[in-house]
Amino acid sequence: LRDTYFRKCEDMVDVRRLKMLQMVQLFKCEEDAAQAVEWLSELLDALLKTHIRLGDDAQETKVLLEKHRKFVDVAQSTYDYGRQLLQATVVLCQSLRCTSRSSGDTLPRLNRVWKQFTIASEERVHRLEMAIAFHSNAEKILQDCPEEPEAINDEEQFDEIEAVGKSLLDRLTVPVVYPDGTEQYFGSPSDMASTAEHIRDRMKLVSLKRQQLRHPEMVTTES
User: Fold this and answer.
1) pTM of the model
2) What is the 3-state secondary structure (H, E, C) of 43-93?
């Protein structure tokens, strides 16, 4: 009887020890999940405040697009990490027959921030892709040899560059709109103005090239 009693006591101790370890794991998972939300929020903040430039030419813009994709991979890993931690808290709570202190609040926060990040990221990609198209077409026209004007003497090409440039300028003034109706702009007004100024300068060069092709005698006179 005494041996049976001691075995029962040992079993109870083991069960309590296991529950204590699970409680520690639960608290750790909850803390780390909350930290993942904070990290994701910081990435969103960095995206909106520092990922602003559209590049001075097509090559630089392509590099920015590639860097952005890697940035998104980091955010995706952070989100997945937070989801895994919250799933672990559910399993632990079921085992402990308790309710989580924070996972009920943390999961909606995590999903909300991730949704905001994906919306802002998609807008960033769209702007970079527009900038690549704009710079690529502008560079083709501006770099073509004067001896071969027929290669670029196409009104449609000029019209397309102008249209993409104007669309890109308009896009810079549009905020990112989240599902809850809140809005957020990329960068500050001065950042926006600086980016827009470079696009306008490139559009002016393309316009000047167009005038030179229409009136080659102007170039001869000036030279």
Assistant:
1) 0.83
2) HHHHHHHHCCCCCCCHHHHHHHHHHHHHHHHHHHHHHHHHHHHHHHHHHHH
